[in-house]
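Regression check, pyridoxal-5'-phosphate case 238:
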Amino acid sequence: MSHTRNRFVHINQRIKSAIEQSTHTIDNLVTLLAVSKRHPLEKIMTLYDLGQRDFGESYLQEALAKINANPHKDIIWHFIGPIQSNKTRDIASHFHWVHSVDRLKIARRLSAQYPNKRSQPLNICLQINISNEPQKSGFSLDEINTQLSEIIKLPNLAVRGLMAIPQASTNLQQQQLAFSQLRQLMQQLNTQFELNMDTLSMGMSNDLEAAIAEGATIVRIGTALFGAREDKTRYNSK
Ligand SMILES: *Cc1c(COP(=O)(O)O)cnc(C)c1O
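Current build output:
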């Protein structure tokens, strides 16, 4: 219990001092997204009691169990994991944000399956394969340039910005380079397509300083907040 509290205080301090040193933050605002995948609902509740409202999940079945058991209606749920097309209906109806939209087909399905009783559109970020790694998901630069015009026409989606998981590096300059490429890509796309995308979802436990230096508006933090994740087999057997 107090572990989680200490980690929460520490992460918020890291974010605050990174904002103070950054020349690219907008209104000094960075949202902490607590990545609760492979952690039980009790840990989410502990952070909720400390004031945290944004939580990120990657595995749909695990996430739905927590969302349905959660008593607090003001939690903002973000889906950040890989998306199979047969999962879009559940994602569209249970989450407020989807950060991992990585192809046109997924965007189309999320829009088509979005429950029409909701007054706000579904917030999405387009995942970009910024380090151009063959095994990673995300739009390539060519794909985003040719497909964004289709995505922005979809009626139930608010295209809020870009997300990336750059190649892991312990070198601050190398980390910053990828994040700065994502920031510049969003500026270029905003100009080219006359958009107002305002969200850069970038930075995790090990590179949040580099991400905030380059203008992250949402950092996705798991391990540094919750400790090590439980492995899949152990998590699912509970
Ligand atoms: C798991 C995950 C995170 C959190 O990573 P940590 O290194 O534990 O902070 C962030 N983003 C995505 C997309 C993830 O899958």
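Comparison notes: The chain has ten helices and eight strands. Residues 172-193 form the longest helix (22 residues). No diff flagged against the previous build.
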